[in-house]
Amino acid sequence: MNFKEKLERIVPKNNSLLCVGLDIDKDRMPKHLFQNSKTPYLDFNKEIIDATKDIVCAYKLNMAFYEVLGKKGIDILEKTIEYIPTDIVVIIDGKRNDIGNTARKYAQSLFETFNADAVTINPYLGKDGIVPFLEYKNKCSFILCRTSNPSAIDIQDVKISSKPLYELVAKKIREWNTFGNCGAVVGATYPAELKIIREILGDEIPMLIPGIGAQGGDVEKTIKYGTNKNKENAIINSSRGIIYADTKNDFSKASRNEAIILKNKINKYR
Ligand code: OMP
Question: Hey, which of 93, 219, 222, 258 would you mutate to test ligand 1's pocket, going by the most ligand atoms within 8 Å of its Cβ?
Fold first, then answer.
């Protein structure tokens, strides 16, 4: 099933735009897992998935949290992806890109080796770095447009012909969307920019919107400005705010509760 069909089925099935970010971090994870299990990271992810799979539309795995563990991390990434129910969207967040020849290998790695439905990529190298990802027509490539961090302004607000760079990137995303498989990453922490970018993108291009929860993004404005006219086509990510809701034995119960609260809050504004 292609990315678009998968998203269009899972959103009504789970009545959810919520994406849970599986950003595994030993410093934040329950200590008992490391005392009692030989596979603490995988056990953690499996418990979180079991506790939230009826509440989410997607899971996002940020490569940094897996790569830092070396070859063991790659194994955990693969096994976690295998464990995610096939009707839920899998996003691998690596913010990759390079010259075309290398980008082709990144695209093959993320979409074929690791079987992602969607990825995050960087637009800085321009079209020939983007095209190898877009050749995977049944997948989705979320292109960084306006990131959620405070220093996003350093480069993304620089004016090009009197318009901020993120507007130019949004226009490029529209232009590059000839196969209908581009998306945009826009941080929930910048609602005014989110509104402008949704206006440029139109209704068809999906947005991946991180920055809710630990980074303090506003849910109401995110839904108002980030969704399309049907109040859909936005995937709202929270990682730490959900998966580290508690560190006790029943941590996954706390994650489930947080996920339900956030899902309901999102739906209240749809
Ligand atoms: P929390 O702040 O813990 O919810 O995590 C946010 C996740 O989204 C992390 O994996 C970030 O790397 C990622 N992210 C952002 O926080 N801001 C962005 O602008 C883009 C991303 C992303 O591409 O997912």
Answer: 93
Distance in angstroms (rounded) separating the CA atoms of residues 193 and 183? 16
Q: What angle do CA 120, 121, 125 make, to 5 degrees?
A: 175
Neighbours of 72 (CB within 10 A): 12
Q: What is the mean pLDDT of the chain?
A: 97
Q: Which of 162, 236, 255, 240 is nearest to 194 (CA)?
A: 236
β partners of residue 159: 164
Model's pTM, two decimal places? Answer: 0.98
Give me ligand 1 centre to Cα 123, in Å. Answer: 17
Among all residues, which ones are annotated catalytic? 95
Dist. CA 71–CA 77, nearest whole Å? 10
Ligand 1 atom at minimal distance to the Cα of residue 208 = 24
So what's the pLDDT on residue 249? 86
User: CA nearest 142: which of 16, 265, 15, 19?
Assistant: 19
With beta carbons less than 8 A apart as the criterion, state whether 193 and 154 touch.
no
User: For the chain, which domains are there?
Assistant: 3-268 (3.20.20.70)
Burial 208-220, CB ≥16 within 10 A → b, else e: bbbbbbebebebe
**CA 134, chain centre distance (Å):** 17
Q: How confident is the model at residue 153 (pLDDT cuts 50, 70, 90)?
A: very high
For the chain, give me the number of helices (H) and strands (E)? 13, 10
